[in-house]
Design a protein that fits this description.
mainly beta; Jelly Rolls; 2 domains; 7-stranded mixed beta barrel; 9% helix
Length: 282
């Protein structure tokens, strides 16, 4: 059992999401940085479908009611147990009564806390993930909340540290042409892959709203709603693209100029307001 002493700005339970429900309007959701989430589970020897705590911008403090093996990955936040510094990207024991505290990450946005056995909350449609758009899954963590630990431990872990590079400044994300590239002027694609973009404050787990050149339309009118996927770059009438992340709507009526490669979405999930990024043709 873990007791949440402080959740920070936003802390949610996440796993690999709930695929297969888009036909009834439910997005996959799940960990925004899937690579960091999966690594945290591997470091403590969890089964792949175990849930972790996704911590946005640090600030999480938890107390162990009994000893647990834990690991923190993702955005490299200062990490301490009872005031003593412990490493990120490495498993360590959180003793009974011990308090784990995450500071504000030096870079990146989202860190992942895994506990051996997984965070145990009731699954909804086969997933323990919090979907901030639809409201499915458990509510964001709150101070005083008790988090049960489940039984999704696998083989004993054999890795003592993972040499993982932290989030990079101004990542370069690969893009493929979207299904409605022809709805925008020819120079929209050139602007997308040749200019630098900034993440605006109006960004969250649903998507990143980007500031940069105005991407102008080549057609008037609106599209009927079409399916959306994580990584879709949709262009609203104001010409400022939105890069959809894990809690994206399953349909949308604005043209999708491009789609970011799935392997590059973890880097997008670590971007903070004010961060810069670029795109290149895959």
């Amino acid at each position: 059992m873990l007791t949440v002493l402080a959740p920070g700005p936003l802390a949610t339970v996440q796993d690999r999401g709930r695929p297969g429900w888009a036909s009834i309007g439910v997005p996959r959701s799940g960990a925004a940085d899937r690579a960091a989430h999966d690594l945290a589970n591997r470091l403590v020897g969890n089964a792949p479908d175990a849930a972790t705590v996704e911590v946005t911008a640090g600030g999480l403090r938890v107390r162990a009611e009994r000893a647990h093996l834990v690991a923190v990955t993702g955005a490299p936040a200062p990490l301490a147990v009872d005031g003593r510094t412990v490493p990120v990207n490495a498993p360590f024991t959180l003793p009974a009564g011990g308090e784990l505290a995450l500071g504000v990450p030096r870079s990146g946005l989202r860190s992942y806390l895994a506990v051996r056995g997984g965070v145990d909350v009731p699954p909804v449609l086969g997933s323990r993930s919090t979907d901030t758009l639809s409201g499915l899954g458990p509510e964001p963590l709150r101070a005083g909340q008790a988090l049960a630990v489940g039984g999704l431990a696998a083989e004993e872990p054999v890795v003592d540290v993972a040499p993982v590079a932290g989030p990079v400044d101004a990542p370069l994300l690969r893009v493929l042409p979207g299904p409605r590239r022809d709805w925008l002027e020819d120079d929209a694609w050139r602007a997308l892959i040749s200019q630098e973009w900034a993440v605006t404050a109006d960004s969250d787990r649903v998507g990143l709203r980007l500031g940069g050149p105005v991407l102008r339309r080549a057609r008037d009118g609106e599209l009927p709603s079409e399916g959306l996927v994580p990584g879709a770059l949709q262009v609203p009438p104001d010409g400022a693209p939105v890069l959809f992340l894990v809690d994206h709507p399953v349909t949308g009526g604005y043209p999708v100029l491009a789609v970011v490669a799935t392997a590059d979405l973890p880097a997008a999930a670590q971007l903070r307001p004010g961060d810069r990024l670029r795109f290149r043709s895959a």
